[in-house]
Every structure is written in structure tokens, then in C-alpha cells.
């Protein structure tokens, strides 16, 4: 926790990305988006952790268990970035970083 | 006429100030008319809420709560080394501490329900914030957020992509479509010359930004000036002045009650509580209605150090105190008779590329943009609410920059105040400043942005690369604004504040939430363990039975030909060693007629093996006697007219 508490450091529990998929129209769009998210996460070497809160079309992809070494993590990051940047269904993506927030 | 037996109520000067009458939120008259926040849920987004404490438990809403740090439904705070996780509990007590329980204090909206979202006690990401802002957003009406980016006088930060999307989604879809109310504390960076326009939560159009004044009505040492602050309410001041009395946690060093809650953290929950009172009398107030009512009813008061300026619409604003002090009586009476403001209209200018050098003070760079009637025709925008300016500026020392915005009326807003501690060399990259000082003024006209460098002349000059103007408002005309002001003043006697007068409210939208019930990871792990354990023992037991049955069949029954059920002796029955199960096999007449056997085999069968008692089905016995291959029987093996074919 001490290591990951630096603002800008990678999120808790390893690497994670927020992804905004192009929304589809019609019935069953949520299910289709979910399937699309699963496939995209798999292609990127990540796990689909599900929709982000109530935001339609936004999904959280997380690092699978087992990638502990720095080289493996870096390789995973590059793979994920490459896949997410190029995929036509991805409207926006961003690696999740720690935010610094203070009580007032 | 309001009396409570809570021992610390007399010290809650912010509720009823006997020492300095008038220096309180003026709520007792509201309570007398039975307006206490009933039917409204306020959620404290913080480090947790100790909901088991007796001042909170009766009003606690588990349905609106969650713990995002531990990912479970219970937002109980965790004890920490610094004894600091009492913050959320103190904020919660300000809002909804239970009255007349002979314990500690009373909340502003003591009839409301209070929930907690624990999110500050651990690593926090943009996605977590987004989840927090919309968590249980059909249950939680008001989100009280007494936190933000660092108030160190050199941070420029706010909600990121997901947080922004969640705030916007909250005001669109939250609270049955009337919009979640987000109340934020303006910040405690006063000592560092901080300004809440460098805080994207505080200068957002979607949030109600609240600052603090001390018991003497002055700006405390920690308070920040800000053009996008809506109003102020009471909090602690310097050490000679009283702080806010509220519920505390009772973990570690806590006692359940504190007299030391302070900062803008203490002001925001009081505002949240007052908004809860408003929503009780008029549940269909939209998020914009709430902001309008605050602007219309906040009271300017005498403070020579504050630069009060009255704008074209007649509203007085100061960078120190916003539109003034929140007044619960005025807020609730205004809410009671309020009809909704028209739809949100907006205008966005083109991106204005300037690439001009920023001169040193006293000279300024001035850029203009004219908004014409034609520009506003499509949206119908007539009068302003928030005005936002998005800029990109390069400069070797960001804190040396000063930005001022002038609305068409000439109303000046210091949107980018110089900050001596901010030495960032990266300037502003599409940062949005905003002001509320032009609220109610006409939108049409020329807007002026003035930028200057108040720093060291030895540094390279900054460059204003581009800027963009965004106007928010409505189709209300200036006359409509004046009419509404008159209407509200007529209600301030309290003549409408009774059950006999109620304006109709639409029912709102039915918006399903994301999860009715989710299994938490811990529950899932427990289920998997129990399931695995059950499966293991099932398989083991089945193997045990199977193998024991196989041995019995091999040795006694199925050596050749059809299986014969063992005979059972009378003695075995008496001794209770007889198998209780009924054999599942059909009897077949040697002529081929099958009959169903109904009872255990008789002891007259000479070939029947010894009686099988429970426990005889050892692993070597074949339980699949029913599947024995059919063999032709030797005549001497035939027993009577029937043979059993298993």
C-alpha cells in the first residue's frame, strides 16, 4: 500500500484500464456490449471486471493474477495499450492511476 | 419552542446561537413546522460512517450505503494509526444525528436518513470515484463530499474522465431523473493562497460548492476565495472561536461526541442537511432548482473585508462568501413555492486560437468574444447561470498567471488567481475555470478575458494559445428573474409553509439500478469452499458405497447368470441386520412374463447368499447387480416359477 499510495502510481491490485466501448443500438445492447468487452479484454490479455458503476458502455479491465514480475507487467501493459488503441470498438481508454484526495 | 434533551445541543451554536443571535443557520422555525428532512436520504462519501453509534443508528440507511475500499455493503470505518477515520461519522452527525436520545447532538435534517460510502480509506482511482458518485443513486438524494484534491496552493486537479461522466450521469438520471445533488466543500487552502477554481469538483456546474465562515461571520484562515463558490455556512474559526459540535466515532480514542469539527468539511454537510429540508417540502426540485434557490435566498451580510458586488440581476456575490450565508428558513420557504427552472440551455464558442504573449503586470493581454442574438437563438439561452472558460496557456511558472473574466454587464470574476506556491512549468492544458458571479445576467454581449503575468520579469513570457467560452443558463429573461425574486420574498413570512399548501410534483422517472444484489467476493469464496467440500465428500461417499457393493456382487451374486437377491432370514430381521431397502428389480416368470417384485426376497431361495446386513456392502462388492449380464440358468438354479432378473 505504501508503494501504491503515490499519486499517479498504478491502481490497487495491479494494472487496470477503463474502456469506453462504442454503444450499440437496439434490444439486448447491454448483453452484446458485455460480450464485446469480454472478447476485447481477452484480446488485450486482461480480465473484464464488469461495467463501471452506472456508466453505460464503460468497462474496467484488470490485470490477471500471476503477472508479478516487472518485465511481465510491462509486457502486459504494452500489449494492452496496443490492442486497446487499435481496436475499432474502443472509443476511449485510460490506464487507471491513483488519485490524491484529502479530507477538508 | 424546540427543545431537545441531547446534552450537547446547547453548544450547537450553528443551529441556535444564543450567544450571538442570528449567527446560525436559522433552522429552528423550519423544525417547528415539522420539516426535518423526512423522506430524504443523504449519503456521506468519505472514510466511512460508524452507523452503529446511537446518534446515527436509528437514521442509518443500509440500502444507500457501500464500502468501495473493502468491496462490501458495510461502510463502517476502520481504525487507523492516525485515529483519522472519524471524518465521515462527524459529517454524518451534522446532517442526521438523532434528537432527544440524551446523546451528544442533533443533526440539521434529523428526520432524514443517512448513508455512507466508504471510499477515502484506501487507494482511489477515477473508476472508483465514478462508482461512488452514482452508487445507489435512486436511493441517495444528496451526496455530501467534504474532500477534494490537495489544497496545497499548487495543485490543479479535479474529476477525471469517468468521474466527470458520473457527475453528469448523476444529474441526468439520479433521483428519478430530478438529478443527484452533489455538495462539495470549497477547500481549506486559504493559507496557501489557494483558489477553488483550481479544483475541478468545486468549479463544476454539477456541484453545489460551499465555503465557510466562522462564528463572527468572517472568512476563516483556511477558507479560499473563489468565483465559482455558491454560498457559505458556519464552521470553526481560529482557536479562540467555537467549532462545530457533532457526533464522533467511538473507536480508538473517539468518545461518540466531538466539539472540534471544523474546516470547509464541516460546512458542506450543513448545506447538505439544509438541502434535505428543501427536498422534503418539494421532492421534485431538480439539481438546477437547488442551485437557483441558493442563489436567490443566500444573504449578503456586513463584512468590510469582503468585496461584495451586485450584478446586473441584483444578486450580490463576493469571492470570499459566494452569494452569502445559507439560511434554512429562506431556503425551505423558497423551495415550498418553487416551480422548476426551464431546461438547461448552453452555448459553446469556437476554440479561439490566439497564440499571444502574456505581458507582465501592470499590462494585460485582453481577448474578446461577442455572443450575438443569433448565436443564442438555437438554444434560446437568455440569462446566465455558470460561465466557463477553457484555456491552454504555456508559462514557466503557472502560479504567476492571473485570469479575469468580464461578462457583458462588466461584472468581473477573478477566475485564475495568482498562487505563490505554484511553480509548475507546464502551464494550463485545456483547464476549465468557471464563475457564478454573472448569475441571472443577460447572456448576449461581449465577453472579455484578461490575462497577465504577476511574476518575475526574468522568466520567459507565457503564451495564451487558445481559449473557449461556454455559457450555461435558461430561457428565463431578466424580467422572469425579477418576478421570481419578488415571488420568493412574498413567501418568506412562512405563510405557505404548512401541509395545506403543496404544489403538484411529477412522479419522476423509474430508472433501474445496476445491481439488485451482488455476491461479494468473500461470500463467493465461502460458497466455493463449502461447495468443494460438499462435492469432495459426496464423491468419496459414493466411491465408498460403489466399491463396497462391487465386492459383494463379485463374491456372492453375479458369478454366473442372473443376479439373485439374497435371502433374508427371520433371525436377521429380528436382529435388525436386514437391509431396509427394497430391491429395484423386476421378477420374471421363466415363461417370460415379468412381474414387479414388491418385497424383499424370501428366504426360500437356496441360492440366496447369506443375508446382507448394512455394512456388508464392502468395497469389493458390486453394487451394479442390476446390470449383471444375462446368462442361461441351469435348471437346478431355478427357484420356483420365478427368477429374479436384476
Give an account of the 3D structure:
The complex is a heterodimer of chains A (104) and B (646). Chain A is of the alpha+beta class and 104 residues long. Helices cover 31% and strands 23% of the residues of chain A. Chain A contains 2 helices and 5 strands, in the order βαββαββ. Chain A has helices at residues 29-43, 70-86; strands at 16-21, 47-51, 58-62, 90-95, 102-103. In chain A, strands 2-3-1-4 form a 4-stranded antiparallel sheet, with helices on one face. The radius of gyration of chain A is 15 Å and the shape is globular. With 646 residues, chain B is of the alpha/beta class. Chain B is 21% helix and 20% strand. In chain B, helix 3 (126-133) packs parallel to helix 4 and helix 5 (264-281) runs parallel beside helix 7. Chain B is globular. At the A-B interface, strand 5 of A face helix 3, strand 5, helix 4 and helix 5 of B. Strand 5 of chain A pairs antiparallel with strand 5 of chain B, so a sheet runs across the interface.
SSE topology:
The complex is a heterodimer of chains A (104) and B (646).
Chain A (H helix, E strand, L loop, with lengths): L15 E6 L7 H15 L3 E5 L6 E5 L7 H17 L3 E6 L6 E2 L1
Antiparallel strand pairs in A: 1-3, 1-4, 2-3
Chain B lengths: L27 H5 L8 E6 L19 E2 L19 H10 L16 E6 L7 H8 L8 E4 L1 E2 L12 H13 L7 E5 L21 E7 L17 E4 L9 E4 L9 E5 L2 H18 L5 H11 L11 E2 L5 E2 L10 H10 L7 E4 L3 E7 L6 E7 L1 H5 L5 E12 L6 E6 L5 E5 L11 E8 L9 E9 L8 E13 L3 H14 L29 H37 L12 H6 L10 E3 L5 E3 L46 E3 L1
Parallel strand pairs in B: 1-3, 1-4, 2-3, 4-6, 6-7, 7-8
Antiparallel strand pairs in B: 9-10, 11-12, 13-21, 14-21, 15-20, 16-19, 16-21, 17-18, 17-20, 22-23, 22-24
Helix pairs in contact in B: 2-5, 3-4, 5-7, 6-7
Biggest beta sheet summary of chain A = 4 strands, antiparallel
Could you tell me how far the N terminus lies from the C terminus of chain B, measured between alpha carbons in angstroms? Answer: 90 Å
**Oligomeric state, counting identical vs distinct chains:** heterodimer
Uncertain ranges of chain A: 1-6
The biggest sheet of chain B, with number of strands, parallel, antiparallel or mixed sense and barrel status, is: 7 strands, parallel
**Rg of chain A, Cα atoms, Å:** 15 Å
What is the N-to-C succession of helices and strands of chain A?
A: EHEEHEE
The percent range for helix content of chain A is 25-40%
Mean pLDDT of chain B: 88
The beta-strand count of chain A equals 5
Structure summary, number of beta strands of chain B: 24
Mean pLDDT of chain A, as a whole number?
85
Helices of chain B, by number, come to: 11
Proportion of residues in extended strands of chain B: 15-25%
Number of helices of chain A: 2
Structural class computed from helices and strand pairing of chain B? alpha/beta
Quote the distance from N terminus to C terminus of chain A. 23 Å
Indicate the low-confidence ranges of chain B by residue numbers. 585-646
Strand order of the largest sheet of chain B: 2-3-1-4-6-7-8
Amino acid at each position: 500500500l505504501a508503494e501504491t499510495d503515490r499519486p499517479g502510481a498504478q491502481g490497487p491490485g495491479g494494472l487496470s484500464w477503463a474502456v469506453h466501448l462504442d454503444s450499440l443500438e437496439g434490444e439486448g445492447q447491454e448483453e452484446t456490449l458485455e460480450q464485446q468487452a469480454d472478447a476485447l479484454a481477452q484480446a488485450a490479455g486482461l480480465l473484464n471486471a464488469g461495467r463501471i458503476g452506472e456508466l453505460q458502455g464503460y468497462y474496467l479491465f484488470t490485470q490477471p493474477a500471476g503477472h508479478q514480475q516487472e518485465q511481465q507487467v510491462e509486457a502486459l501493459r504494452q500489449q494492452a495499450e496496443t490492442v486497446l488503441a487499435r481496436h475499432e470498438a474502443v472509443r476511449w481508454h485510460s490506464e487507471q492511476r491513483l488519485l490524491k484526495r484529502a479530507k477538508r | 419552542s424546540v427543545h431537545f434533551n441531547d446534552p450537547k445541543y446547547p453548544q450547537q451554536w450553528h443551529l441556535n446561537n444564543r450567544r450571538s443571535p442570528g449567527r446560525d443557520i436559522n433552522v429552528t422555525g423550519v423544525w417547528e413546522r415539522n420539516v426535518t428532512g423526512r423522506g430524504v436520504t443523504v449519503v456521506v462519501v468519505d472514510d466511512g460512517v460508524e452507523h452503529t453509534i446511537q446518534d446515527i443508528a436509528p437514521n442509518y440507511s443500509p440500502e444507500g450505503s457501500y464500502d468501495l475500499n473493502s468491496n462490501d455493503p458495510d461502510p463502517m470505518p476502520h481504525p487507523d494509526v492516525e485515529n483519522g477515520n472519524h471524518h465521515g461519522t462527524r459529517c454524518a452527525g451534522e446532517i442526521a444525528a438523532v434528537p432527544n436520545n440524551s446523546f451528544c447532538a442533533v443533526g440539521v435534517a434529523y428526520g432524514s436518513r443517512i448513508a455512507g460510502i466508504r471510499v477515502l480509506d484506501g487507494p482511489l482511482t477515477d473508476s472508483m470515484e465514478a462508482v461512488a458518485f452514482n452508487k445507489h443513486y435512486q436511493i441517495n438524494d444528496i451526496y455530501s463530499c467534504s474532500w477534494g484534491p490537495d489544497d496545497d496552493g499548487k495543485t490543479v486537479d479535479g474529476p477525471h474522465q469517468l468521474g466527470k461522466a458520473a457527475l453528469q450521469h448523476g444529474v441526468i438520471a439520479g433521483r428519478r431523473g430530478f438529478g443527484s445533488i452533489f455538495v462539495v466543500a470549497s477547500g481549506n487552502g486559504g493559507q496557501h493562497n489557494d483558489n477553488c477554481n483550481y479544483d475541478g469538483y468545486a468549479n463544476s456546474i454539477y456541484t453545489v460548492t460551499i465555503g465557510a465562515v466562522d462564528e463572527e461571520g468572517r472568512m476563516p484562515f483556511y477558507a479560499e476565495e473563489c468565483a465559482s463558490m455558491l454560498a457559505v455556512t458556519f464552521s470553526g474559526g481560529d482557536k479562540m472561536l467555537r467549532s462545530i459540535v457533532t457526533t464522533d466515532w467511538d473507536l480508538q480514542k473517539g468518545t461518540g461526541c466531538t466539539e472540534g469539527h471544523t474546516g470547509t468539511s464541516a460546512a458542506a454537510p450543513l448545506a447538505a442537511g439544509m438541502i434535505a429540508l428543501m427536498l422534503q417540502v418539494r421532492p421534485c426540485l431538480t439539481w438546477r432548482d437547488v442551485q437557483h434557490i441558493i442563489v436567490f435566498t443566500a444573504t449578503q451580510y456586513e463584512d468590510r473585508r469582503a468585496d461584495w458586488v451586485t450584478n446586473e440581476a441584483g444578486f450580490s456575490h463576493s469571492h470570499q462568501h459566494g452569494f452569502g450565508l445559507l439560511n434554512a428558513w429562506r431556503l425551505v420557504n423558497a423551495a415550498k413555492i418553487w416551480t422548476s427552472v426551464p431546461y438547461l440551455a448552453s452555448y459553446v464558442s469556437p476554440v479561439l486560437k490566439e497564440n499571444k504573449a502574456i505581458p507582465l503586470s501592470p499590462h494585460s493581454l485582453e481577448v474578446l468574444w461577442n455572443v450575438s442574438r443569433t448565436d443564442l437563438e438555437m438554444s434560446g439561452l437568455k440569462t446566465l447561470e455558470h460561465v466557463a472558460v477553457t484555456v491552454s496557456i504555456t508559462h514557466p511558472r503557472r502560479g504567476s498567471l492571473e485570469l479575469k473574466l468580464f461578462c457583458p454587464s462588466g461584472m468581473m470574476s477573478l477566475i485564475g488567481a495568482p498562487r505563490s506556491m505554484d511553480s509548475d512549468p507546464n502551464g494550463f492544458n485545456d483547464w476549465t475555470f468557471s464563475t457564478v458571479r454573472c448569475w441571472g445576467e443577460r447572456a448576449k454581449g461581449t465577453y472579455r478575458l484578461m490575462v497577465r503575468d504577476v511574476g518575475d520579469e526574468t522568466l520567459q513570457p507565457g503564451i495564451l494559445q487558445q481559449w473557449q467560452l461556454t455559457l450555461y443558463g435558461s430561457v428565463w429573461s431578466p424580467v422572469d428573474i425579477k418576478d421570481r425574486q419578488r415571488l420568493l420574498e412574498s413567501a418568506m413570512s412562512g405563510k405557505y409553509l404548512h401541509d395545506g399548501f403543496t404544489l403538484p410534483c411529477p412522479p419522476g422517472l423509474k430508472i433501474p439500478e445496476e445491481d439488485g444484489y451482488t455476491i461479494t467476493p468473500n461470500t463467493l469464496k465461502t460458497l466455493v469452499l463449502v461447495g468443494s467440500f460438499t462435492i469432495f465428500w459426496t464423491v468419496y461417499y459414493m466411491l465408498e458405497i460403489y466399491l463396497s457393493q462391487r465386492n459383494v456382487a463379485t463374491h456372492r451374486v453375479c458369478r454366473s447368470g442372473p443376479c439373485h437377491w439374497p435371502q433374508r432370514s427371520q433371525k436377521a430381521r429380528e436382529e435388525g441386520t436386514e437391509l431396509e431397502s427394497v430391491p429395484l428389480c423386476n421378477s420374471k416368470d421363466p415363461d417370460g412374463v415379468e412381474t414387479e417384485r414388491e418385497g424383499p426376497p424370501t428366504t426360500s431361495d437356496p441360492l440366496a447368499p447369506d443375508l446382507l446386513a448394512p455394512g456388508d456392502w464392502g468395497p469389493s462388492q458390486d453394487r451394479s447387480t442390476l446390470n449383471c449380464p444375462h446368462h442361461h440358468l441351469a435348471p437346478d438354479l431355478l427357484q420356483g416359477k420365478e427368477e429374479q432378473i436384476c
